[in-house]
Task: structure prediction
Amino acid sequence: MSAPAPTLPAMIRPLAPVSWKTPIMLSVIGLLSLVFFGFAGSDQSATFGISTGGDVFTLPDLVVPGMATGIVLGLGMCVLAGYSIFLAREHRPTPGWVPMVFAALFIFAFLVWVVSGARTPQISLAGLIAGSVTLAVPLVFGSLSGVLCERAGVVNIAIEGQLLGGAFSAAIIASVTGSPMLGLLAAAVAGALVSVVLAIFSIKYVVNQIIVGVVLNVLVSGITGFLFTTVMQEDPELYNSPGRLPVIDIPGLSAIPIIGPILFRQSIVGYLMYIAVAAVWIGLFKTRWGLRVRAVGEHPKAADTLGIKVNTTRFVNVVLGGAIAGIGGSFFTLVAIDSFTKEISGGRGFIALAAVIFGRWNPIGAFFAALLFGFADNLQSILTIIGTPVPSQFMAMLPYVVTVFAVAGLVGKSRAPAADGEPYVKG
Amino acid sequence: MKLELQGISKAFGSFYANEDIDLVVEEGQIHCLLGENGAGKSTLMNVLYGLYEPTAGRILVDGKPVVFRGPGDAMAAGIGMVHQHFMLVPVFTVAENVALGAESTKAGGILDLEVTRKKIREISDKYGFDVDPDAIVEDLPVGVQQRVEIIKALVRNAEVLILDEPTAVLTPQETDELLDIMRQLKSNGTSIVFISHKLREVKAVSDVITVIRRGRVVGDAPPEAETTELASMMVGREVKLTMDKEPANPGEATFKVKNLSVISSTGQRVVDDLSFEIHRGEILAIAGVQGNGQTELTEAILGIQDRVTGSITLEGKELLGRSVKQVLGSGIGFVPEDRTVDGLVPEFTIAENLVLDLYDKAPFAKGISMRPAEVKKNAESRIAEFDVRTPSAENLASSLSGGNQQKVVMARELSRPLRLFIASQPTRGVDVGSIEFLHRRIVEERDGGTPVMIVSTELDEVMQLADRIAVLYKGRLIGIVGADTPRDVLGLMMAGVSPGEAEGSHQDNPDDMEGDFA
Result:
C-alpha cells in the first residue's frame, strides 16, 4: 500500500485565481488608518488605566503618545497588507493570523486615536473590559438560546421576545414577591413560555419558523408594553421595583487585576452565564444528548431511522433555549437597573442572533462573539462620556456596524446545521 | 431469524402502494425483491422497518407476530436497513454515525466513542471493510459510506439486513465488492433482503427472487431464470432488453469542445481541460460515476455555469459566453438530469410544459399574446407521438409517472429541428417499458443526422446507446473508447484507470462476470 498515487497531486490543484479581496481590503483600511489615526492624530497622550482600586497589586497606567502610536500602528497594518499582497501575487492565500493581528492593531490604533483626541484623554481599560462582559451577559444568554434551537434545526428569531418576556416577568414577580430570586425563576418560565408557542407552531403545525419568530417578537413587545402602561405605571412601588440581585464578591480572587472583576465579581446571573456556556458546550459536543441533538439538526431523517424522536428533541431544545434566554432577560431588570421600561431589551435579541452565526453555532464561539458586541457597545458609551472627536450618534452606531461587518465577513464561510429551519415531517 | 410478511397492504389515501403482499425470508438467505421504480419495493421495506404503519397485514419474526411502531422497534427485533439515500450525518465522524441512537456512555451521559471505535474496527477487520472510525463521513467515497451503513446495522446485531437499491450509486467494481460482502454476510448467517431492478446483480447473488409489480407480488423465480423472463415478469409484458440499432454512419464533426474547464462555486475545478468532438449521426456517451463533472459539463454547454474557460463550438459558432436562450436557439435540444427540478414545471399543465422553450415563437405566440389553441394542438400531437399516458393535455405535469414525465421532456426537446441533442440520464427512474421507447427515439434522432451526447451513470445504458464512449473521472477525460469495450474495462476507467492499463488488467482477470443485461 506504500505506492504513491501519482494522480493525486494533479487532482488537488490550486484554486484558479487567488482572491484579491483580503489584500485590497487590508491595504485600504491600513492606509486610511495611517492617515487618520497617524498623521491626523492628536498630539495629546492617551492614558489607559489598568488597575482598579481594590486590586491586590497595582499595575502602572499605560500612557502612549497619540500621533506617534498611530503612525507606528498604521505602518504595522500597512506591512501586513503588503505581505498579503505579496502572497496574492505568488498565488497563495493570506493565512488566518494576518487579519487577526491586523484587527488587533486596528482596534488599538482606533482606541489610541479616540482617547487621545478626547477632552479627557484617559480611560480605564479594566473598566472597559469589565463593562463589556456586563453588557454581553444578555447577548450570551440569547445566543445560547439560538445555538440550542438551531443545532436542533429550529431557527429562533424570537430571542428578542424571550429576552423581553424574561425581563418583564422578572421585574413584576420580583416586585410582587419581594424576592429577586423568584424573579429570576419567573424570567426562565416566561422565556420558556414564549418558546412553547414557537415550538408548537413551527414544529407541530409546520408554520414558517421565521414568521412565527417575528410575530412572537411583536406579540411579546405588545403585551409587555400594554401591561407596563396599564399595570406597572399605575403603581410602580408595588409592580415595578424588583430590587437588584446582589453582586457576589469572591474574596481574594476578585482582586486580581482585570480578570478578577470579570470572573469573580458578578451577580448570580453573571455566574450562571459562565456555567451555561460551559454546560451547553459540554452537553452539545460531549454527551449522548448532544450527539442526538446535532444529528436532528443536521439530518433529521437519519436520526429518525435510528429511533430518535426528532420533533420531541426539537421541542425540548426550543423550550430549554427559551428558558435560558429568559434568564438573560432578567439581567435587564434585576442586574443592570431595577425597573422595567418598554422595549428594555432594545434589539439585543437580534444581535444575539448575529452572535450565533458569528460564533459558528458553537456556544464558546457565540460567547466570544457576544463579548465583541458587548465591547463595541461599552466602548461607545465610554467614549461618549470622555468626549471624543466623533459625534455621539456615530458612536451609537458602533455595535450595529460591528454586527453587520462580523456577519457579512462570515457569509459563505460558516456553515449552519444542514436542516436548520426545515420542519421535519415523517414519510 | 426467519422473517415473514403476511398480507401487507399500505395505502396512501386511495392509492395502494402495496397490496396484500406475502413474503418469507429464510435464515441465511439472500432474498431479492425485484421490481421497477415505483413498484412499491421501498414502501414495503419502510413498512418492515417501522417507518410506515401497514394499512393491513402483519409481520412475523420466527413465527411470532410483531408490531413495529418505529425504526427503534425494528432494530430491536434484529432488522437493519441500508437506505437508498444514506442515512448518515455528513459532518459527523464514522464513529459518531455508528454510535448515534445506540451510544455507549460513561457516567453523566458523557459519550464513550472508544467502545464504538473498537466495534467498528472489529467488524471492519472481519469483513475487510477498511473503514477509519475517525474519518468524517462527507469526505468518504460513496462505496465506503455504504459500508458505514452496513456497519451501523451490524453493530446493532442485525440478523436481517435490508439493502434498498444499494448499487445505484456504485461503480461496477464497487458493486462487485458489495456482492462479495453480501455473500460473506450470508455465510455468517445474516439474511439479506436485496432490493433492486438490475437483473444482472439480482441473478448473480440471490437465492430467491420475488418479483413485485404495481404493489403486488407477481411471483417467485429462481436465480437461474432467464433475464428476459425476469424482465417480462417485472414489466408485465414482453420486453426487448437489447436494442437492434444500425451501426452509426458518422458525418463531419460539428460539435467541438476544446480545453473546457469549469470552476465550481466552491472553487474546485470540476471539469478539467476537456476536449472532444461529436460527429453528425453519432452518439457519444459520457460515462462515469455520479458527480465526476458530468452535470457541470452539460450545464457549461447550455450556458448556466459561470466560471468556464475553453471553447465550445457548434458548426463553427462559439457557444461559450452566449445566453441560454441563444444556445437553445442555435439548435440544441437539452434533457436535464433531474426532470422534476430542471426539466418540467410540475405545477404547469402538460401542454404548457411542452412549449416551455417555444412559448414566444410562432405558432404559439402572436405579438404579446399566446395562442392556446396552437399550444393544445401541439400537445395533443406530441402526446400521441410519444405515447404519454395521461387523461388529457390539461393535467398537471406533476400528476404523471416518472416515465411519462420524461417522455414529455423528451417530446419537447425533440419537437424542433436540432443541430445537437444532449440528454442527461435520459432514463433515470423510468420504467423498463418506457426505456425501450426513449432509447429508440434517441437512436432515431441520431439516424436523422444529429450529433447526440448522452450522459449516463448506468453502464448498461451507455453500452447500449453509444457509438463511442467517453469516460469522465474527477472532471478529467480518462479516454474515449469504442462501444464494444468490455464492461470491466469501462468500470476500471470509471475509477480513474487509463484505458491502456484497464485493458491490461482486464486480460489478467478473465473470470469476470458476464455482462449482458439491461
Summary: Chain B touches chain A through 37 residues (CB under 8 Å). Residues 172 and 491 of chain B are 5 Å apart (CA to CA).
